[in-house]
Q: What sequence folds into this?
């Protein structure tokens, strides 16, 4: 099953660094999996736990948050806040039974296009090694979301 | 304020698993401030439960709401229509709120989403500490405003045990020795003589040892008409 | 020893007490053996009360066994496990079973022991427990109700000469004396300078003070005490001395140190006596005593 499985992955990227890096990866024509969907936020400090949960609830197989390098957040410490929230959300995912390994956080600067591509590949590989989000399967069967 | 924390999702799930339509209702007072059961947390709890139950093959319906205070009829009563439309209520208020809902909606199962922990305050952002045990007979006046019942792990009244180390309680290196704090504070206030008095055993009948405590005040009392 | 503990205290003789730890379970063989060797060597045997918050055979029962064997028991009572009703009731029970000495302690916190989820009590503190004994002696319980037959105990308490904050310890020490403690047994002390400093304060009253002597069995134990046991500090010289002991001779070294300190305390009249703790190795106490020459 997992061979054919193409995971749906959502990346929450901050405007200043992560999105810049993703953009750069694109213009450098670096190869990274097309199934990573980017959601741009002004800062990863805007990442609320509920955003992460909703992504999974709506069927994402994996989610990652990308912020500026630690110490370089454009809003001082939004990325640190995000890091803690990601940690709590990982625990919740474990409790729910989806597994915290479907979620992660990375830090990079706008100039690190190759790093973005690498992270996107890494997450895709990791999720491929798991089963698809069981909620997505259920949604398909029932022909709809909530 | 009342400080509470969320129960594990699996524990909540087990309570509500047999109900199809559940109203998850938060409280916008203490538990919102301690980030355990306000509007935001209701969203998180409901989302987690939906996912956890769906993984189990269920199709639950969660209705989310949050009222100003679950410990007052005035606000609880606004939930009536919503409660009528569900099979069960999950309250993310403190135990007082959970029980208020249970009393107001006698035909509906009401479950707690939180563990009500203590009366205290956020000492730092994200760190809450217990400061009052609600014993019903406040002695803070003689202890320099630091409660030995709540802040000494053994609730000692006549001075410290021998167990503190570097100002920390024998129970945990993270916890200040309450008696050390009391002593230092009274010293600073030049009121150490207050501690010389030998205090008799505490009268615990004002604590909860006489059963549920109630307080009646004639000047503000009027009979409930509803 | 046939003399009552309170008479020994009054006599001005150098007082020696030791400890008996009730077993966890009902096999009392080893404990009986310890009682047999110690009963004629010490003036009193202190029976610990669910020591370190670990549930064990009750100290009242063991005190009774000691009287049966002709020893002089000192009943330890902590405030951790019993409320004022149970404490008073046990005091009455101990009295009718022949126990005449009681040592009142706060008790370790429940979380340090083997029933971490238990509801701890601390309805009374150690000062109030002493007051309760005194009240029973006066013929009434602490609720003010008359007793049909009272008690008469020699009441002791504890002190920590090397505590974190000595000022607040002295506060409690004063209260214990005022309430009626007649003798004190200290927490283990190794630093004689600190013990002397404590005694300078304690000598302002005429209560009897027994210095706590805890027999070291290894350098590791000394380090453990320093790191984990509040109010106990083993000076570096003693740790080195223990570490320098020949293999298999560490206990012997610990006994030597204990004997040396007992001798010093007696010769220099630092305290009125000693309380020897040899946790589980009570059989070495007679030898320590003969080594110290007391
Ligand atoms: S160490 Fe301090 S706070 Fe802890 S039990 Fe003893 S006196 Fe109370």
A:
């Amino acid at each position: 099953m997992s061979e054919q499985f193409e995971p749906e992955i959502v990346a929450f990227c901050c405007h200043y660094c992560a999105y810049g890096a993703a953009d750069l990866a694109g213009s450098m024509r670096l190869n990274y999996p097309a199934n990573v969907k980017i959601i741009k936020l002004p800062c990863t400090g805007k990442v609320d736990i509920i955003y992460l949960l909703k992504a999974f609830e709506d069927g994402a197989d994996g989610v990652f948050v990308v912020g500026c390098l630690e110490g370089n957040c454009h809003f001082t410490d939004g990325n640190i806040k995000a890091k803690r929230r990601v940690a709590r959300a990982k625990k919740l995912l474990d409790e729910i039974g989806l597994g915290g390994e479907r979620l992660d956080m990375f830090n990079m600067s706008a100039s690190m296009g190759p790093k973005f591509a690498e992270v996107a590949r890494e997450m895709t590989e990791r999720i491929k090694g798991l089963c698809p989000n069981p909620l997505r399967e259920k949604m398909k069967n029932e022909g709809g979301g909530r | 304020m009342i400080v509470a924390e969320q129960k594990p999702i699996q524990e909540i799930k087990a309570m509500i698993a047999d109900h199809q339509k559940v109203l998850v209702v938060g409280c916008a007072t203490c538990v919102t401030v301690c980030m355990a059961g306000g509007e935001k947390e209701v969203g998180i709890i409901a989302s987690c439960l939906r996912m956890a139950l769906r993984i189990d093959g269920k199709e639950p319906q969660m209705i989310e709401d949050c009222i100003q205070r679950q410990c007052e009829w005035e606000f609880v009563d606004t939930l009536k229509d919503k409660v009528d439309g569900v099979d069960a209520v999950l309250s993310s208020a403190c135990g007082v709120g959970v029980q208020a809902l249970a009393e107001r909606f006698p035909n509906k199962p009401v479950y707690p989403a939180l563990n009500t922990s203590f009366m205290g305050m956020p000492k730092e952002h994200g760190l809450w500490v217990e400061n009052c045990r609600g014993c019903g007979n406040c002695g803070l006046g003689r202890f320099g405003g630091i409660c030995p019942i709540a802040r000494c792990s053994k609730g000692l009244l006549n001075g410290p045990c021998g167990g503190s180390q570097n100002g920390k309680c024998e129970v945990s290196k993270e916890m200040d020795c309450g008696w050390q704090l009391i002593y230092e504070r009274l010293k600073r206030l030049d009121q150490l003589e207050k501690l010389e008095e030998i205090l008799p055993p505490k009268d615990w009948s004002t604590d909860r040892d006489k059963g549920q405590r109630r307080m009646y005040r004639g000047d503000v009392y009027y009979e409930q008409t509803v | 020893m046939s003399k009552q503990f309170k008479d020994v205290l009054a006599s001005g003789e150098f007082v020696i007490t030791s400890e008996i730890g009730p077993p966890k379970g009902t096999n009392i063989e080893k404990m009986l053996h310890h009682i047999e060797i110690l009963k004629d060597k010490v003036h009193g045997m202190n029976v610990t009360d669910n020591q370190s918050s670990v549930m064990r055979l009750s100290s009242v029962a063991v005190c009774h066994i000691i009287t049966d064997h002709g020893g002089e028991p000192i009943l330890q009572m902590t405030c951790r496990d019993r409320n004022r009703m149970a404490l008073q009731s046990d005091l009455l029970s101990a009295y009718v079973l022949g126990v005449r000495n009681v040592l009142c302690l706060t008790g370790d916190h429940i979380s340090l022991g083997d029933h971490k989820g238990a509801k701890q009590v601390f309805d009374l503190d150690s000062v109030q427990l002493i007051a309760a004994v005194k009240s029973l002696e006066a013929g009434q319980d602490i609720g003010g109700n008359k007793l049909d037959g009272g008690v008469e105990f020699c009441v002791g308490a504890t002190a920590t000469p090397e505590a974190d904050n000595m000022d607040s310890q002295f506060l409690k020490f004063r209260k214990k004396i005022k309430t009626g403690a007649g003798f004190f047994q200290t927490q283990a002390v190794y630093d004689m300078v600190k013990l002397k400093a404590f005694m300078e304060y304690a000598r302002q009253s005429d209560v009897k003070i027994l210095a706590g002597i805890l027999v070291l069995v290894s350098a590791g134990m000394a380090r453990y005490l320093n790191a984990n046991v509040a109010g106990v500090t083993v000076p570096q010289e003693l740790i080195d001395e223990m570490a320098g002991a020949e293999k298999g001779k560490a206990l012997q070294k610990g006994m030597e140190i204990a004997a040396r300190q007992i001798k010093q305390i007696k010769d220099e009249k630092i305290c009125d006596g000693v309380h020897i703790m040899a946790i589980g190795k009570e059989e070495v106490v007679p030898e320590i005593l003969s080594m110290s020459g007391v």
In short: Helices of chain B lie at 9-16, 30-33, 39-55, 73-76, 80-84, 95-104, 148-151, 178-188. Chain B is about 30% helix and 20% strand. The longest strand of chain B covers residues 114-124.
